[in-house]
Amino acid sequence: MEGALTARDRVGVQDFVLLEEYKSENAFIFNLKKRFKEKLIYTYIGSVLVSVNPYQQLSFYTQYHMEKYQGVNFYEMPPHVYAIADNVYRSMRNESRDQCILISGESGAGKTEASKYILQYLSVCSTSNEQVGHIKSQLLQSNPVLEAFGNAKTHRNDNSSRFGKYMDIQFDYKGAPVGGHILNYLLEKSRVVHQASGERNFHIFYQLMEGSDEKMLRKLCLEKTPDTYFYTNQGKCAKVRSINDRKDFIAVQKALKVLEFSEQQIDNLFEIVASVLHLGNVNFSANDEGNAVVQNDHVVQKVSILLGCDLDQLLQALTHRTIEANKEKMQSPLAVDQAVYARDALAKAVYGRMFNWLVESLNGSLTNKDVKRRSLIGLLDIYGFEIFKSNSFEQFCINFCNEKLQQLFIQLTLKQEQEEYRSEGIEWEPVEYFNNKVICDLVEERHKGIIDILDEECLRPGDASDKTFLKKLEETVGEHKHFVTHALGDAKMRKTIGYEEFRLIHYAGEVTYSIEGFLDKNNDLLFRDLKETMSKATNEIIKSVFPTSELARLKRPETVGSQFRTSLNKLMDILMSKEPSYVRCIKPNDAKMSDRFDDNLVRHQVKYLGLMENLRVRRAGFAYRRTYDVFLKRYKSLCPKTWPRWDGPAKEGVALLCKHIDYADGDYRLGKTKIFIRFPKTLFATEDAFQIRKHELATQIQASFRGWSQWRKFQRMRDAVTLLSAHWRRVLACRLREKRKKAVHDVRKFILGFITRNRPRCPENAHFLDYVRISYLQRCQSGLPRNVLDKSWPKAPAALEEAADLLQHLYMRNMTLKYVKTITPQRKAAMEEKVLASAIFRSKKRGYEESVAQPFQDKRQVDQLKPKMQTSMDPGDKPIYCCTVTKYDRHGYHARQRTLVVGSSATYLFDSKDGKLKQKILHSELRGISTSSLGDHVFVLHAPSEQKQKGDAIVQSTFAIETMTKLANIAKKSKDVKVVENGSILHDMAGGKQGTIEFHAGTQPSVTKSKQGSLVVIAPGR
Ligand SMILES: Nc1ncnc2c1ncn2[C@@H]1O[C@H](COP(=O)(O)OP(=O)(O)O)[C@@H](O)[C@H]1O
Ligand SMILES: [Mg+2]
User: Is the overall model pTM greater than 0.90, yes or no?
Assistant: First the structure.
């Protein structure tokens, strides 16, 4: 442990196995002493813990220390009772084997303390969960209750256990405590009625007086002073410095609550304790006939009230006895000493049975309600070997019990161990040790042992007494080496043994027993009258522990000695069935002092506890052994040849394993069925390796599991996908089938519709007709003409021809309207001119078709009218159209360049060069316009005849169609335009003469004057 403790642990050796002079008792004791002086009270002999009572509170029992010892290898930490507890706990968990911890040592050596530390460790450090919290506290709380009722101050120990206790703690498979069970052994009942000087009765009596409040004291009719009561004043030491009765009483009350005792039960318990105290104060005196009478009835009354029994009946039962003679029942009065005996017997019986009830009730609370328990850890804390000044039947039983435990220890550690080496064929040098079996036999052997001799005396008719018992002993076992009496001893011995005593040479020392009371105590007789009174009590506990059925039983109850022997043998069987661990407690001095180490006292204990032999066996032997299969099962993962499975014999597997993990030759042996490992460190190294390997394996297992679970998941997904796709394909197939079905239906309907299409609308063709319509309309949608000139139209089926016509008409109108809306006034005018041109020239004059595509213009070949031309025009007249033309004059048809200007009221011909006005024709006077049907460009403006000097104007314009149309339009003379078909035009000339223009079709266009004086125009014909 940290700091000081670790450092101090280097004092001496912490394991006697490491002691150089391991055969020397002195060296052994010196090591113990050295460590004790440094407050190092724990030392190992291998896995056995030797503990020396420090008689002072030490600091290494804290939560912190408990945690430090958890799951740590035994030898890695300084020796501690926690290490034993942890080792036991882990063995239980790892190997699922029941364990037990045997704590031995003489009275006051620290057994009970050690057991408490172990219990505390197990409850703190075991697995916890929600449910076990309660059971843990119940386990812990059972201690203060049992100690209050079963412990007392003796010369040896202020808190001496006056009963034996074997407690087992049950664990579930996770290592969480789930329940417990207590077996109790022979309570020292005589203490209830008698205490030696300097000793006390059971703690609870003092606690009740010291700890109760006024109300409770009144209820129990108790005084606060133990001196008042005979049963608590004999030892004359009610107050003890190391004991705080008041505080302890509070703890007991709290514990009883945790252990689920009801208020009623707790009241009943304390009523019984109080009634026992009162019972002790019942006095008797002899009446005239020498018979006992109760002196103080009021005390008996208190008892009767507290136990709820009939006062008169109780008084009668305390002083009389019913005897049966000749099948007649008779009341026989008791003498005073008999009455006192009866009273004490009652007190002992009441207290003893109450104690048993208490243990049973505790067991009721601790019972594991769930049956899932897996393994258990037993904890044996039993009274230690005792030698008092005066030793009686109780010490005889207690010491016999310790003999048995020593026997068990020998069996398991020395004898069995050596026998095991032999049977396993391991080389071995035998170790000598004292086997105390002879002493056990002396006490318990059938018919020949002390217990049976005592029983015989108890049952024998006639006047058997303690003395006759001693005589019988001398006769029967007088020869035994371990038995001595005054009569049998030599002179020296006689001085130390009284006449009414016998001495047993126990393994732990010689004890001289006074035979007084042996028979009575063994009989443990309680008169029937008292039992009957008790069975009628209203105190529930008393009623239940004195059942009426007991009264009917005729068989003699088993004697105390036999009962004890039977229960001890059962205990041995229990312990033998478990894997034991040992704590050997040693008392350093008799004075309960913290700083005294009495060498001789310790030497004595070391000797009788067999620690030296224990050490020698350890040194020579092997610390650890396991059957091959168990060892292999645990560690096989450390060797590739044995992992994961070894099919051969386990021994060979273990041999391979040991080779693989490199055990040194001397470190282990292979027996017939087991492997033996010499040093714990070898095993711990293996265990450590296993722990590491376990993690690796866990990781591997985890990985495999994950892989497997993923694979499962994948498989499930794949199956799901297959299923889904199968379903989906089915759905698709269904849909396709539906679609095809519909298609077939539609096709049939279509064909039927087609066949019947010409009939009037009927169900057969309605759909087809609708279809035709819709499809025609859809066709129309994309196939309609895009401009007004496009006269195409989608061909309509027969049924729709009329509608198509209407539609086309509407459509065209609509398109025209739209078109018209986009036309400007200028363009409209231009169009109108074109229309006019068409009206005049279409199909009449060659050259018209070519002119259609050419837009008319307002100015042709004239950039700007000369100012002179403008001023020569009539006032208010504006030029609307002008172009350059050739004019053939009347004098020989000479061609002259002229600019023709059409104004709003007249047409002017100007000299193109000087701009001089040559001719003006008022529109109102224009008679008409003539042109030929040929492709020439000549036309005649027929002027009025009053204009003598001028006459008609013969003009040639490159854009004759345009010029004539414009002119006709502006002058509003369109009706007066003549296209001459017959090939000649007559025109007026000045002076009333007429000229002729002849037109001829020809390929070489020309305008010439013929010999006859007419103008001949040749142009392409139509
Ligand atoms: N480990 C310990 N630490 C401190 N005191 C101890 C220890 N062990 C024993 N004692 C003291 O010795 C007394 C007797 O111990 P106990 O366990 O009752 O002895 P046993 O049960 O062997 O008769 C205790 O009351 C306590 O005062
Ligand atoms: Mg004890």
Answer: no
